[in-house]
Specification:
By secondary structure, this protein is an alpha+beta fold. The chain is built from 10 helices and 9 strands. It folds into 2 domains: 183 residues, Orthogonal Bundle (Triger factor/SurA peptide-binding fold), CATH 1.10.4030.10; 104 residues, Chitinase A, domain 3, CATH 3.10.50. Strand 1 and strand 2 form a beta hairpin.
Length: 333
């Protein structure tokens, strides 16, 4: 249950009562250029657990910046409504974490560090990771705290909610029948490419030398030599290390110089040498997927996962509402 502010909140303005001036306000040393409202140091208390105004302030500030970038700056009433949504969301997150701990779920330091390192591994370096977080207004330590909360919630949902979610085949079939347009696919071709560049400064003679070399390579391909191996050896394209594999693509996903040829060719066929602004090329079609309606059998598993996720989301919201009725909750905004 990650935080979000739906666009729909822009059209639902909650006029909140004036907060007592005696409250201690958060961020007294912060600039409030992006926000028109102030938040108390503690925005809510859930079963003796305080929810910090700093957390809500950070999320609200990020949201306000995003809406401003979209050309929809928030006014004060909209900021209040957004803050209210975020506080309610944080109350739900807090209840899930407290319930997780109550049921014996534990997130050890090792588990947390392993997960953090898993996320970091998706970035080229720790500094890039930290910089990306800074762009979102977060420190690594703040992200680590968020990660811990998410891990508690995820474990609780897996333990208490997901086992009760079942998707009947009839439901999957009904979804498929009512949304067939979503399962229509365009014809796709898979091809590999080889490129040899030429230096314009060497003139016609330079071009002819490159072309002669390419003709020799093409002869090897036509006589049964492996296209991918030759591409790895000779191609000057960025895909050379992959044997020139372009993957699957539709007619519109590839440059016309390639797609027009590829879609006319048969699987296994190799083109003649052709020229583009990048140099000389040859193309080999390696597979083809016809377009049309994907059968239910091929989409069933994806549909089941999609419907299960929807049910889990609704069941989690219902679960939180039950926890709220049992909890002591007080808000200060």
């Amino acid at each position: 249950m990650r935080r979000f502010i739906p666009l729909s909140f822009l059209f639902i303005f909650s006029i909140l009562s004036t907060t007592p001036a005696s409250l201690v306000w958060a961020h007294s040393g912060h600039k409030h250029d992006e926000l028109k409202i102030k938040l108390p140091k503690v925005v809510a208390r859930v079963n003796d657990h305080d929810i910090s105004g700093d957390v809500i302030f950070r999320e609200l500030k990020k949201a306000a910046i995003q809406y401003k970038k979209r050309g929809m700056p928030l006014n004060a009433d909209q900021e209040k409504s957004a803050a209210k949504t975020l506080i309610d969301d944080e109350i739900g997150r807090t209840l899930l974490v407290l319930k997780a701990k109550e049921t014996g779920i534990n997130v050890s330091e090792k588990m947390l560090l392993d997960k953090l390192n898993e996320v970091k591994a998706k970035f080229k370096s720790d500094s890039i990771f930290a910089h990306r977080l800074a762009d979102r207004g977060m420190t690594v330590e703040q992200y680590k705290q968020e990660l811990e909360i998410d891990m508690y919630m995820d474990q609780l949902i897996k333990k208490e909610i997901e086992p009760n979610i079942k998707i009947a085949e009839k439901d999957s079939r009904d979804y498929y029948d009512k949304n067939k347009r979503k399962f229509k696919t365009q014809e796709k071709v898979r091809a590999s490419i080889m490129l040899l560049k030429f230096n314009p400064k060497k003139g016609k003679a330079g071009e002819q030398a490159v072309l002669k070399k390419f003709e020799s390579i093409l002869d090897q391909v036509k006589n049964g030599s492996d296209f991918g191996a030759l591409a790895q050896q000779h191609s000057q394209d960025s895909l050379a290390s992959k044997g020139g594999d372009l993957g699957y693509f539709t007619r519109k996903q590839m440059l016309p110089a390639f797609s027009k040829r590829a879609f006319k060719m048969k699987v296994g066929e190799v083109s003649e040498i052709f020229r583009t602004g990048h140099g000389f090329h040859i193309l080999k079609v390696t597979d083809r997927k016809p377009g049309g309606l994907s059968p239910f059998s091929a989409e069933k598993e994806k549909i089941e996962k999609f419907l299960a996720q929807k049910k889990v989301s609704q069941a989690t919201r219902d679960y939180i509402e039950k926890l709220k009725k049992q909890a002591k909750i007080k808000t200060y905004f």
